Amino acid sequence: MERRARWVPWAMFVGQGIVTATVMGMLSVVVVFAFGYHPLDVVAVFNVFAMAGLLAAQTAIAAVTAVLLFILTGVVVAVLGLPVRLIPRWRRAWLRNGEWTIAGVLVGIALLIISITRGQPITTAVGGPAFAPEPWTLFAGWWILAFSLSLLVWPVRWMPASAKAWWMRTQVTA
């Protein structure tokens, strides 16, 4: 009887967590700054000393908002992904059909790009130009990308024969 590689699900969980954290962390910073952080507005209104203090405060607020958005995203996709990881039937279907997670990543990225192309130019308080992505498409793309990244698995059909045989014996059949 062959030993099961019990470390693989944990390694996958850690790897998927790192990939999700990296991508969604960077995107959360981009989203926060795209939706209203405009340091040049401060320059036109305040003197240099007030500008430096306010700019530091705005930067800190934007950074905290980005971190909170990142944490919220991570918690939500982790909780939503638990049934897929814990229910054996769903887990087998997930591990056999990695193409769906890759398709989800591509759809999420496409929706994020569409939200940018369908966005609207806006005018800030001082009159400077800014840009706001289309929010509903951004929202859908954000969550689809995050969920797909959190469950990302390489498709079995794309594996070499020896790796595919090992994967099916040790991971998919439980």
Number of helices: 7
- Unreliable spans: 41-47
Mean pLDDT: 75
Distance between the termini: 14 Å
Strand order, sheet with most strands: 1-2
Tell me the number of structural domains: 1
Structural class determined from secondary elements: mainly alpha
Q: Overall 3D geometry?
A: elongated
> What is the helix/strand order?
HHHHHEEHH
Number of strands: 2
Spatial extent as radius of gyration: 21 Å
Sketch the major β-sheet: 2 strands, antiparallel
- Give the fraction of residues assigned to helices: over 70%
Strand content: under 5%
Give the SSE layout.
Layout: H1 7-34, H2 39-45, H3 48-86, H4 88-96, H5 98-117, E1 120-123, E2 129-132, H6 135-150, H7 161-172
Antiparallel strand pairs: 1-2
Helix pairs in contact: 1-3, 1-6, 2-3, 3-4, 3-6, 5-6
Describe the structure.
The protein has 174 residues and is mainly α. It has one domain. 75% of the residues lie in helices and 5% in strands. It has helices at residues 7-34, 39-45, 48-86, 88-96, 98-117, 135-150, 161-172; strands at 120-123, 129-132. It has a two-stranded antiparallel sheet. Strand 1 and strand 2 (129-132) form a beta hairpin. Helix 3 packs across helix 4 (88-96). The longest helix has 39 residues, at 48-86. It is elongated and about 60 Å long. Mean pLDDT is 75; it is low at 41-47.
